[in-house]
Amino acid sequence: MTDSARPLRIVLAEDSVLLREGLVRLFDEAGFETVAAYGEADSLLAAIDETNPDLAVLDVRMPPTFRDEGVRAAIELRKRRPGLGVLLLSQYVEGTYAHELLSSGEGGMGYLLKDRVASLDELEDAVERVSEGGTVLDPQVVRELLARRSDPLATLTPREREVMELMAEGRTNAGIAKQLFIGVGAVEKNVTSIFQKLSLEDSGTDHRRVLAVLTWLQR
């Protein structure tokens, strides 16, 4: 909840210049204050203490890889500032991202599809609800989340799916790291996360890597 004597402070990350400037104008018309607007997520993260916003609005896919920079930044923001509201905007239904963000901590959370925001009033309402600690999800995102509850593989992030595919090809962690141009440590973290999401506990008798691959191949 913000001080009623000042406008809601928003920080924005959106790589499309036209959309970024359009959102700034919309927020201004709604009576909000855009304290900073960036074309990528790292700059937003670097200046978060300086900008001190009430709400962060981020695109999901931004430079440099256009994969999940926005949601990664959102999760990091919630770690640094647990009460900060986060509103994701996307052109796609990314149920995994919504699930990750919902599970990442305190504070309001929203996930809206850009093409389905029908009016300024709708966007203004979403911003206010998220800033006050509420949750706002596009109905398509809700349906995606419900569908994924029965499929543990659907909870894997895009990177985890890449790792899983290479595991199924029989590659070692070192081989996966070389193929994806990432460190072995990063691969190990992804593999551990895969085991957790597939509920594969370290029993000492079962080979979790083989069981994970079998689950993947039976999808």
What does this protein structure show overall?
With 219 residues, this protein is an alpha/beta fold. 49% of the residues lie in helices and 14% in strands. The chain has helices at 17-29, 41-46, 48-51, 69-80, 95-102, 120-131, 139-148, 158-168, 173-180, 184-197, 208-217, and strands at 9-13, 33-38, 55-59, 85-90, 109-113, 135-137. It has a six-stranded parallel sheet with strand order 2-1-3-4-5-6, with helices on both faces. Strand 5 (109-113), helix 6 and strand 6 (135-137) form a beta-alpha-beta unit. Helix 8 (158-168) packs across helix 10 (184-197). The chain is elongated, with a radius of gyration of 19 Å. The N and C termini lie far apart (44 Å). The model has no long low-confidence stretch (mean pLDDT 86).
What are the SSEs and their pairings?
Layout lengths: L8 E5 L3 H13 L3 E6 L2 H6 L1 H4 L3 E5 L9 H12 L4 E6 L4 H8 L6 E5 L6 H12 L3 E3 L1 H10 L9 H11 L4 H8 L3 H14 L10 H10 L2
Parallel strand pairs: 1-2, 1-3, 3-4, 4-5, 5-6
Helix pairs in contact: 5-7, 8-10, 8-11, 9-10
Strand content: 5-15%
The termini sit apart by: 44 Å
Strand order of the largest sheet: 2-1-3-4-5-6
Q: Which bin fits the share of residues in helices? A: 40-55%
Q: Indicate the structural class.
A: alpha/beta
Helical segment count: 11
The overall strand count is 6
Low-confidence stretches: none
- Spatial shape: elongated
Radius of gyration: 19 Å
Q: What's the main sheet like?
A: 6 strands, parallel
> What sequence of helices (H) and strands (E) makes up the elements?
EHEHHEHEHEHEHHHHH
Mean pLDDT: 86
